[in-house]
Design goal:
The structure is a homotetramer. By secondary structure, the first copy, chain A, is an alpha+beta fold. In chain A, 22% of the residues lie in helices and 36% in strands. Chain A has 5 helices and 13 strands. In chain A, strands 2-3-4-7-8-9-10-13 form an 8-stranded antiparallel sheet. In chain A, strands 5-6 form a two-stranded antiparallel sheet. The radius of gyration of chain A is 24 Å and the shape is globular. The two termini of chain A are 30 Å apart. At the A-D interface, strand 1, strand 3, helix 1, helix 2 and helix 5 of A face strand 1, strand 3, helix 1, helix 2 and helix 5 of D. Chains A, B, C, D: Keywords: Oxidoreductase, Purine metabolism. Chains A, B, C, D: It catalyses: urate + O2 + H2O = 5-hydroxyisourate + H2O2. Chains A, B, C, D: InterPro entries: Uricase. Chains A, B, C, D: Catalyzes the oxidation of uric acid to 5-hydroxyisourate, which is further processed to form (S)-allantoin. Chains A, B, C, D: Belongs to the uricase family.
């Protein structure tokens, strides 16, 4: 019997950091998961914890670091943590920090109507955006960094400019070709930075995220699509073209089917050109997954972003 | 043995209606649930379906009506449906239509960088907002209307201007008083319109929603809070004061606890005034629920908005 | 403006009580939610907490009572808690305790093969059953008790002995009649006990639950069904007939549709009589809800067990 | 720009197969996801679907095969499907079939009380077990098979025989050592079969599952645990020792913390030896993951079974 790859740590530490700039407050709202690996044979074989920093300690470290170093960005925060675990604990050879970030926007209160309690513009009130969840994963082995950022649960739709035809037909094929369909998906994306070394200049993580997200959305909107694969590839290549800090992008795109409803039994035409009625289906769904790579780069983002 | 209240219908019909105004498209994205009641003793006692319009038919009706009448607003659509079932089916005496609405915003593609495919501003591309879910419930008995609208899953936070002290202390009380805490909640709200009759002028449902939501958020932001109950009451009374079409509001507000982390063991101060680090807890949570009513009005929104 | 019904407390206290009987251990695993009402105007109007026992205290009380009194049954535990809050706190006039219970079964280790570590039968190892969740709600106003118990998420299926035909057909009806279909549902049930007074003999809560559940399942299995409503009524009336401690039952039964798949395009017959292939659909679904009452009793279980 | 790994297909086909053996019925209830790869460059680059078998066709195939071949086991069914796609479609070089299986048990109706409708023992009525979900993944590239089976969401607990002490203490360590704690986890496990070739004798998939599950549970129950890692390793090695058809096992085990509640402020002792009261926490949680391998075998199960 051999022990294979193993890792441990505290998952889903929900840390919220408020920064006060006078009356103006700022939020960072993260869900931080720590996974450590190294000389861990004994704890598996005999139960000796002599090399084990408790998962409870990794939790404490997350909260303490949020105070000591602040949270400039999820990526920067993960880098602090990963470096700490690998450099301070001899048995730990690798640290992987995964972070989900929830974004908040200010509640605007400046219009005249709202002032009847006498408040001026409020600077400490927020509503959670609830659109995508931003994610990042930082891995450090004492020498090299790997940073893979991304997002999940960003639901997008094109109500036209999507076709699907010219496909293989076998004995189990009944699908009708479509020349004007809805294309909708719930984007899960991960992109890998080519920053790997403390000697390199670090990307501007916040700006990079905004730009990658923008290019991805624009490519989705602007692609006249003959297949979801084509749209995916455009989304990925747009990022690689515009963002030199990114070498690899992977997507997992469920095809959120919107089926044109057959209303003929009720004497109604339901043509897309007139503005149609669709049934938004749950399951099953097409699932399209692919990696887009910069020329000459090696793929490192794991293939599976889902268990289904 | 007696049969008590009973109702039946098709739940969660996921209907999406695209409206095309030239190249500019609009979306209405609803989840519609139908519940019908009336002369339904026999189907329970003997299984005779002679009075039963199939739930499948109620589903078909939802999709057909979306085409025939369009979806001006969730409320208006529910009114069409409820009226249809009660007036067209003699055994059906009451119809209740519940609708969830998911909102979408346009993907902005107008900035110069994004045009490399040659696209002009795209008018058919959307991203789902993902913040609150808007809800409505229309009930019709052939004579009177009851419209209760609302929202759920709107997460809000004040990072200051909240205190909690001066409470009862019994032998099980260990809580420390707080003079500057985070107040966060996930708003579930329902408000009842005083429109009940086809003779009355109908409210402008879309505008009403925007305004109710705005007043609610402003009240949350602007209230210096000594208890979540006080904030709730301010949110409700602000709506009643400003929106004459609403007679009753009910809230279910979980207190999403953000606990100040004790960092003293690590030699760190964690004071709110300096911008602090919090642990965002899941369970248990305080749950504050109450109704605010216009003077002289009777409460009709059911007390329980949760099963917990 | 008037304050209407209001209630507050700590929801979802996850309390686990281990009882040791020598080497044999027993588990009670509950999720307890407390809701208190009474003289609570001031906390809403001015934020004064002078009448407010903190929700944190209600949490502490749950855990302390689990130790002081043990957890004989969810119902008995809820009765202890409700009585305490109403009798010990003058401003509190009513307490409602809701409890979810998760059941565990022992891991059987007695077969010969498993003993290689030298263990005898292990008496402290459990696997969570994961079938239905048992629920109860205890309400006390200082005088009268109301106990409503039930279950949720119990998924059942009859693979035959279900028909559906003879229903109303209007212009939106396309459904084909069915003479041998699958009937499946996810049972949510609540039943109200006629125990209301400390002077009455209390039901045996654990035995009552087992018996009610058994009668419900037997009625589901043994009813040749012409409609889900008929099956529902049989399930309810079987309980009322056999269990004199229960006066009222309410069900919310989604019709978990299993559609016969059309395999004719592939040259395959798919007849139910031969054992057929079905597509298990998610949404939409029929939703059938009704109350069954003992003669002469008044309905008190709220109509809505779902928000959809 | 290069296209990297890519795959597509229909996910979550919810297929239910009833087999009738006279009045006795049997259920197979699966959730089948298809992922195909091969010569798929063009659909990504230009949107040409000339090599694309539609995901809709893969769905139809799942349902047709359930009728044509039946579902002897999830593994056998996946093997049929994977072979079909790779051998019948020239551009498809690899097929991966993932299946979740939900198990059902019969509703026992044989006791005397239940017969009042006159039913004999009912043989077509079932209740969904709801404990673990069984999973499998079959991958075929036209030559070699890889079968990885497993389960998820099996929640287990030892109420004693677990300790945790002797760990590393750094400046962020505050955890107290524990000599008698609850050990609970929600098992996610995957095990890889050494059957890879049509020439080899195929394992008995159903029996293998029962036995692997049993050994895993026994190891959990019978291990006196000094760390969750030790328990994990025992669970894995017990499988490797007893089941020659399995070469590799991987676990992802969240440590479902049950914290002893401090009841001293209320004058109560809460010692484990007396049967104690615990708070079942949600987040954060320790997460322990590792692979156990047969000597001389190579690890092939992906490291990450979760995104957190």
């Amino acid at each position: 019997m051999i022990l294979g790859q193993n890792q441990y740590g505290k998952a889903e530490n929900r840390v919220v950091k408020i920064t006060r700039d006078g009356a103006t407050h700022h939020i960072k709202d993260l869900n931080v998961s720590v996974a450590l690996s190294g000389d861990m044979e004994e704890v598996h074989y005999s139960g000796s914890n002599a090399n084990v920093l408790p998962t409870d300690t990794t939790k404490n470290t997350v909260f303490a670091f949020a105070k000591e170093y602040g949270i400039e960005s999820a990526e920067q925060f993960g880098i602090h943590l990963a470096r700490h675990f690998v450099t301070s604990q001899e048995p730990i050879h690798q640290a992987r920090i995964r972070i989900e970030e929830y974004s908040w926007e200010r509640i605007a209160t400046s219009d005249a109507n709202s002032r009847f309690i006498g408040a001026d513009e409020v600077k400490h009130s927020f509503v959670r955006q609830g659109q995508e969840t931003r994610v990042t994963q930082i891995t450090y082995d004492g020498t090299q960094w790997e940073v893979i950022s991304g997002l999940k649960d960003l639901v997008v739709m094109n109500s036209t400019n999507s076709e699907f035809w010219g496909y293989v037909k076998d004995k189990y094929t009944t699908l009708q070709e479509a020349y004007d369909r809805i294309l909708a998906t719930q984007v899960a994306a991960r992109w890998r930075f080519n920053w790997t070394d403390d000697e390199q200049k670090m990307p501007h993580w916040e700006k990079s995220y905004e730009q990658v997200r923008k290019h991805m959305l624009h490519a989705f909107a602007e692609t006249y699509s003959l297949s979801l694969q084509q749209t995916l590839y455009q989304m990925g290549s747009r990022i690689i073209t515009h963002r030199s800090e990114v070498d690899e992008v992977r997507f997992s795109l469920p095809n959120k089917h919107h089926f044109l409803v057959d209303l003929e039994p009720f004497g109604l035409k339901n043509d897309t050109a007139d503005g149609a009625v669709y049934f938004a289906a749950d399951r099953p769904y097409g699932l399209i997954e692919a990696t887009v790579l910069r020329d000459g780069c090696e793929a490192r983002i794991p293939v599976d972003m889902t268990n289904l």
